[in-house]
Amino acid sequence: MNLFKLFAASALLSGSAFAEIERTEIYYQIAAGTEKSGVASEKYFAKLAWGTAVHDKCLAEVELRAQKLLQRSNTNQKVAGYVSDEDLDIRNATVNCMFDDWELVLGKQQVTWGQSDYFRVLDTINPLDTREHLLAYMDDLEEARLPLTMLNLSRILEDGDFQFLIIPDVKSTLLPINRSEFDNLSISGIENNFNLPNDFTLKNTSLASRLRFFLGEWDVGLYSYYGWDFDPKPEQLNESNEALTLYRKKLFGVSLSRPLGVWVFRSDIAWQPDSQVSSSQGTLEVDRLSMLAGFDYALDTLSFSFQYANFHQLNASKNHAINRRYEQGSVSVSKYFLAERLFIQNDLILEKHRGKLSQLNKFNISYKLRENMGISGGLINYFGSKNSALGQFKNNSRIYFKLDFSF
């Protein structure tokens, strides 16, 4: 699939498949490596969204996305080789109905939980596309999530709301393209051999609920989830065959937020009993406690955000080679100029694993050429030792350019 085919598919859908087009978006992005010469990646992207009333109380929405991703291979050849992946997927296909205080959303969709950005303490309903590592998070987390088919039922309360989810769909985190620079599995010798539940059955169904309410100025959320940990773990099937397997997960959590003058405080806390983690001795069962706190500041066209997250793997023996505690942090600063046509933003992510600190920094400049067209570019750098969480991707540091428009 090339860029012409993406444009053609979008135009065909716009012209014949649907009568009421809400929007079509197309963008092209190219990134050039800064530590390893040559083009690091290319990305072609087309999206079509449509919606129409199907009843006086119901709205149908569909969003399609075609995408081609070309990435540099992780081989050490002097002339860079490339690997690619392409997909045409349904990002959203729902019927949304309102009945008095009830809202029902049925179909393929995303659900966002919690108060955090980047660090998924409570936002764990949908798996992620990690083919571009953290880059997909920073550009648009909504584009990084993988939609799931579910029944999403909400009740509006006097001072909040209650949400209940039934999710028969099961998907794994979408791992990096095989042999790409972000593919650690091929580097370690593990191939992408999946052992996943892939059928819609009651046995595989996930259940989740959220109660949100206000206590004075506090916005409080209570969460529970019984479903799947979408990050697959290596499992030794026999002496010569290893597979990536999904395990069940239980989660109980609390989110808090409130204004503090010109600041906003937000926090997520999650408890995961009997969680599966990988170690040199195989997959172990531990209890996991995750905590996040953040502060946001916004004044006119200037925004500032800070987050700190702490993750604990509890009740594991010291003899088990696992990371029993790790920390993450982020700092984001952004500002608009020229009547909000020019936007400058810098995002810094820090991770501390096994005592090693590593960083990812993204500097971005965007300019709106016209209402439906924009250009952007910037610099993405990984820092840290080669065996650190983010420093291992040093050769993936890059400069990038993106053009996007909608019609």
Overview of the structural elements:
There is one protein chain. About 3% of the residues have low confidence. The protein is globular. Helices cover 7% and strands 61% of the residues. It has 4 helices and 19 strands. The protein has an 18-stranded antiparallel β-barrel. The two termini are 22 Å apart. A hairpin with a 2-residue loop joins strand 13 and strand 14. It is mostly beta strands and 407 residues long.
Number of strands: 19
User: Average pLDDT, to the nearest integer?
Assistant: 86
Q: Which structural class do the helices and strands define?
A: mainly beta
Summarize the amount of helix as a percent range: under 10%
Molecular shape: globular
Q: Topology as H/E string? A: HEEEEEHHEEHEEEEEEEEEEEE
Major sheet, described briefly? 18 strands, antiparallel, barrel
Low-confidence stretches: 6-19
Strand percentage: over 45%
Q: Give the CA-CA distance, first to last residue.
A: 22 Å
Number of helices: 4
Rg over CA atoms: 22 Å
Structural descriptors:
single chain, 407 residues, mainly beta, 18-stranded antiparallel beta barrel, 4 helices, 19 strands
Summary, kept brief:
The chain is mostly beta strands.
Topology:
Blueprint lengths: L2 H15 L3 E13 L5 E17 L2 E15 L9 E18 L2 E8 L25 H5 L1 H4 L3 E10 L2 E8 L16 H5 L5 E2 L10 E10 L2 E21 L2 E20 L2 E17 L2 E18 L2 E13 L10 E13 L4 E12 L2 E15 L2 E11 L14 E9 L1
